[in-house]
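For the sake of transparency, this paper describes our internal protein records without simplification. The record that follows is passed on verbatim for readers who wish to inspect the format:
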Amino acid sequence: MTEILRVDPKHPEAEAVGHAALCICDGGLVAFPTETVYGLGANAFDAKAVDRIFVAKQRPSTDPIIVHIASFEQMADVVSEPSDLAKTVAREFWPGPLTIIQRRGKRIPANVSAGLATVAVRFPRHPVALALIRAAGVPIAAPSANLFARPSATTAQHVLEDLGGRFEIVLDGGPTEIGLESSVVDLISDPPLLLRPGGIPFDALKAVIPNLKVVERYHNVQSAEGQTAPGQLLRHYSPRCEMYLVMGKGEAGIGCLRRAAAGFQQMGRRVGILVADEDASRLEDLDATIVRLGSRSDLDQIGANLFIRLRELDNLGVNPILIGEFELNGIGLAIRDRIVRASEGRIIE
């Protein structure tokens, strides 16, 4: 049975954090909040504990796990020889929602990195995550705390819905701030590659890494080849039902949503629609379940609500879920990426 420990997200109680840290050191698994999503953590030096993460999540061994650290000095325990560029990027964006790819250090077992010679490492800024890593005294390997391919967990309740009973402790620090995973940048490749858009906008990364390129990779889960970074599989963040990205902006987008909904309703299917606040009233005459994501002008709000509302709508038993497109500025690129993967590439134009 999973133990639930509620903690203050800004000033986590030392007793609860210490209890969770002992669990990590004993080979156990602890779910904890970061500024992006909840993670399911194990001692990054303990291959057997890391294996437990793959079993609990039903995660393929080809999908690597991010290693979380709580100081710049701790990177030396994870990375063999950080490049000058990695040090520059880390100083600019850490602690924060950025993961960088470097050469794997000798103390990190191969299963953390899907057998590759590289490792994904991040220095989160969430007080609970930092307190746990520091109390444990080891880096913590942690993917998102949800069943594989399901929407990421942004509350402790989401964690328990998917994984309750499969791990020892969850530190409940309330809902996460960003609601989307970290940006992942490969700083070994030349030029550097943005493998997964996330919590840091592309333009901000580009200002520090001028030759950064965006790479869209949609791997098949059956592939035997290890992925360079997490979050590159086509089927990811998906609800139980079918989901479709409906393309089109303004009136054209609304019209396309209406036609798509009508088509599924004619087949006798109960349609759910994820939509911006401004567009909800224009679709209320449809016989569909409409859930609002937030203001179209506030992409940070849309991003924070995406997985929460997706889970809510999925739990209502609709099939399919339709969602319109959003602008690609700011965090919009990360939102588009999550929608495409949640939809498994199903797009209506």
